[in-house]
Amino acid sequence: MAKSVECLCRPEFKIRAMNSEFGSGAMGEGNSCANPLCPLNRVKAGVAVRIKQLCASPQVADRLREIGFCEDQIVKLLTAHTNIICIVCNTRLALSSQIAETILVEPLRVAA
Questions:
Q1: Is 37 helix (H, G, I), strand (E, B) or coil?
Q2: Residues 83 and 96 sit within 8 Å (Cβ to Cβ)
Q3: How far, in Å, are 26, 62, 68, 75, 88 from residue 93 at the CA level?
Q4: pLDDT digit string, tens, across residues 18-61
Q5: Is the pTM of this model over 0.85?
Q6: Domain boundaries, the chain
Q7: Residue 87: helix, strand or coil by DSSP?
Q8: CA–CA–CA angle 7, 62, 72 (5° rounding)
Q9: Long-range contacts of 34-39 (CB under 8 A, 24+ apart)
């Protein structure tokens, strides 16, 4: 049985997103997000997530898939500064914040 997890977005995103139901109820209260999808550039450093959708242009989405950012791929965010550095298939890759914003991810479910 899977246990739901808290919103994985950083607090500044949750504040802006609460009106759009993107991060509602997640300000450290222990509630799950109504919509757990979040752009990769808004994820806290150290969190492992699963890619659910690539919202980039077809050419950029194809290139992201070629380097390992495929749907249902698990990635771990290492840093979330100007550039986003994450581990994909045991390889560290850096993305611009603008590209990372087009990658929608969900938190990994914790087994009970």
A1: coil
A2: yes
A3: 29, 16, 9, 10, 7
A4: 333 333 333 333 444 566 799 999 999 999 999 999 999 999 99
A5: no
A6: 2-111
A7: strand
A8: 35
A9: 36/5, 36/7, 36/8, 36/106, 36/107, 37/104, 37/105, 37/106, 38/7, 38/8, 38/9, 38/13, 38/104, 38/105, 38/106, 39/13, 39/100, 39/101, 39/102, 39/103, 39/104, 39/105
The reply to whether CATH 2.30.30.90 applies to domain 2-111 is yes
Beta strands in the chain (DSSP E): 2-3, 38-39, 48-54, 74-80, 83-88, 91-96, 103-107, 110-111
β-bridge mates for residue 91, sequence order = 88
Residue with tokens 């990635």: 75
